[in-house]
Design a protein that fits this description.
The relative contact order is 0.11. Helix content is 43%, strand content 28%. The longest helix has 108 residues, at 153-260. It has a 4-stranded antiparallel beta sheet. By secondary structure, it is an alpha+beta fold.
Length: 261
């Protein structure tokens, strides 16, 4: 009898660029088997089901499959494609039991080294991977994956476009930084020029104040000299008047004395 799962065989086309470094990760989540029970039966913990979902993590990418309800042997047949650089050479696959009201429970996980995939024929691997739970090292079932890690021109163009966009953004930021730097320099120059002008105005004000003080000092000295000269002239005139009166008195006395003889 035909099995849809066995008939699900993807990424089998030839590797068009076998010598180019890989940049495209394609994952086919086929199925899982013998998963642990996430929702035990009310009557026995050894019986029950799970609602499994797969979460993939590689580099900066995190993506998930759909949820399969009430099964320990889910069949997904779902594919995912992501752009991945060679240094992100680890793919983590984690299965969880999804509950509506509580957080998801761990059903097991596996880490796949993508360098092993690259070493396979056509850089493609179809394999059952043993799942391990975080709480123990016991097997928690298996998951079947088809993984292809090859080079594609599409993502190379996308990478170049993003690189150009990143370069343009960096250039824009550099230009903005240079413009901000230029404006700061202009503002600093204007502030320095304003400070210089203020210093010059302050210096001119000080010079004017000193000149005014000097002029007033000279005016006070000139007034003092004029006063002293006026006082000296008044003394001289007073002395001259006293001398003249004394001489007149002497002359009058002499005339009186001659008239008496």
């Amino acid at each position: 009898r035909h099995s849809p799962v066995l008939g699900f065989d993807v990424f089998g086309e030839p590797d068009a660029f076998p010598t180019m470094p890989p940049n495209t990760l394609r994952i086919a989540l086929v199925q899982a088997r013998d998963l642990v029970i996430g929702d035990p039966s009310l009557f026995s913990k050894k019986s029950g089901t799970s609602d499994p979902r797969a979460t993939f993590r590689v580099g900066e990418h995190v993506f998930q499959s759909s949820v399969k309800s009430r099964t320990l042997a889910p069949c997904w047949r779902e594919t995912f494609t992501r752009q991945v650089v060679a240094q992100d050479a680890k793919l983590e696959v984690q299965l969880e039991d999804v509950d509506t009201l509580t957080s998801a429970d761990d059903l097991g996980s596996v880490v796949i080294d993508l360098t092993d995939v690259v070493s396979c024929a056509g850089r493609r691997q179809r394999k059952w991977h043993r799942l391990l739970r975080k709480a123990s090292s016991e097997s928690a079932g298996e998951v079947e994956l088809i993984v292809s890690f090859r080079y594609t021109e599409q993502f190379d163009a996308d990478l170049a476009r993003r690189q150009r966009a990143a370069d343009a953004e960096k250039a824009k930021k550099r230009a903005e930084a240079e413009e901000a730097k230029r404006k700061r320099a202009e503002a600093d120059e204007e502030a320095a020029a304003a400070a210089k002008e203020q210093d010059e105005r302050d210096a001119e004000t000080r010079r004017a104040a000193l000149a005014l003080a000097e002029r007033k000092r000279r005016e006070r000295e000139a007034a003092k000299r004029a006063k002293e000269a006026a006082e000296e002239e008044a003394r001289r005139k007073a002395e001259e008047e006293t001398r003249r009166r004394r001489e007149a008195a002497i002359e009058a006395q002499r005339e009186r004395d001659e008239g008496a003889r």
